[in-house]
Amino acid sequence: MYSKSGGLDIAQKIVERSLTTNLNVVSFTCLLDGYVKLGDINPARKIFDSLKDRDVVAWTAMIVGYFQNGLNNDAIELFQSMLTVGPKPNNYTLAAMLSVSSSLASIDHGKQIHGVAIRSGEESSVSVGNALVTMYAKGGSIQNSRRVFDHVSWNKDTVSWTSMIISLAQHGLGEEAIELFEKMLAIGIKPDHITYVGVISACTHAGFVEQGQNYFSLMQNVHKIKPTHSHYSCMIDLFGRAGLLQQAHNFIEKMPVEPDVIAWGSLLSSCKVHKNVELAKIAAERLLLIDPENSGAYSALANAYSACGKWDDAARIRRLMKDRGVKKDQGSSWIQIKNKVHVFGAEDGSHPQKDVIYITMAKLWKEIKKRGFVPDTDAVLHDLDEEVKDQILSRHSEKLAIAFGLISTPENTTLRIMKNLRVCNDCHSAIKFISKVVGREIVVRDTTRFHHFKDGSCSCGDYW
C-alpha cells in the first residue's frame, strides 16, 4: 500500500522494524514495484538477497525489475543463478527472460531459454509461446518465429496472432502477414487495435495502398475500433512510402485528432526519400512546433535539401541546429559475437581490430565494384569530392559491422546486424552485392524493418 501510494520510505522503515529476514514474498513484490517505478533497483536487490525463502515469484519479480530498468545483463546473471540454486522457473519467468533476449536481439540467448521452456514443459503456455514468436522475430529469425507459431501446440489468442502478423510485416513478408490476418478472421478470432496496426503496416511494407485503406475502413465499420494516433501514422506511412505525398499530407490535415510528432515525422521521412523539399519544410515546421528539440526533424530537412543538391540550404539548417544546441542522433550499428556486442559508428576507428576491419572492407569494396556495384554518392549528404564520398560510403557503420562479422565467424554463418537509423540506399545496394560475393545471408534490422540479404537480393524487394 505504502509503496503504491508513493510512501516508499515509510514502507522501507516498516520492513526494517519487522526484520527483513521475515519479509514475505507479497511484501517484497510490493516494495519492488515501488523501487522499479523510481528506477532504483539496488534496495530491492538487498531485500531479495536477505529473504530466507525465495520462491519463484520473488525470483521472477527481481528479474522483471532488472529488465524494466534496462539492466539486461543483471537479469541474465540472476536467471543463471536461479537455474543453479533457485526454484524451477515458471512460464512468467521464462516469458520475462525471453523479453530480455528480444531486447538484446540475442538469438543464442533466446534459444537457451527456449531449451529450458521445452525441458520444463512450459513451451506450450500462451505467455511463453507469444514471447518465443517475438524473440525469434526480433533476433532476425522469422523462420523460427513462424515455426513456433505453426507447430507448437498452444492455445493461440489475439496477442499470438497479432505478434506473428507484426513479425511478418517487419521482415518484409507483407503478403504472408495479410494471409495470416485473413485466416485469423476466418476462424473467428477478433482482432484488436494492435492487430490492425500490424496488418496496415504489412500493407505499407508491401506497397498495397488500396488494401491498407480497406483495412482501415474495416477496422472502424466492422470491428468498431476507433483509430488511434498509431493507426493514423500507419496510414500516413502507407501513402508516404508509395510516394503519394500529397495524399499523405491531405490525410494529416483531415485527421479528427491533432497530428503528433510521429505523424509529421513519418511524412517528413517520406519527403526526404522522395526528394520533396517543399512538403518537407511544412512537415518539419509543424513537427518542430510540437517538439523544438527534435533532432530528427532538422536532420531530415537538411538531408532532403542535400538530396536535391541544395547544399547552402542544407548547411543553413545544420547551422540552425547547432545554434539552438540540438544534438544529432549519431548512426551506429552493432553485431553480437560470442555473447559480446560490438558497436560501430561511421568511419569508426575505436575498435581494437580496426585495421583488419578496414582492410577487409576495402577488399570487399573493390570486389563488389568489379561485380557491377556503383556507389551511390548522393547518399553522402555533404558537398564533397566524389573520391572522398566514395571512401565515406565504404566506412558506413553497417558495412564495418559486416566486415567484422566476416572475420569473426565461420563460413556460411548468417550475420545479424542491428542499426539505430534507416539503412541508406548505398548500404542497401552494397550489402546485396556483398551477400552474393561472400555467399552468406546477412540480416539487417533498421528502425522500421528487417532486411534479409541473400544471393544478391533483399527480402524487401527494394521497397522500404
From TrEMBL:
Task: Give me any GO biological process, just one.
Answer: RNA modification
Top-level taxon in the UniProt lineage:
Eukaryota
Keywords for this protein: Repeat
SUPFAM superfamilies per UniProt: TPR-like
Domain DYW intervals: 372-464
Can you say where the PPR repeats lie in this chain?
Answer: 24-54, 55-89, 157-191, 294-328
The cross-references to PANTHER family, in alphabetical order and at most eight, read:
DYW DOMAIN-CONTAINING PROTEIN (PTHR47926:SF519), PENTATRICOPEPTIDE REPEAT-CONTAINING PROTEIN (PTHR47926)
What is the recorded name of this protein?
Answer: DYW domain-containing protein
Originating species = Coptis chinensis
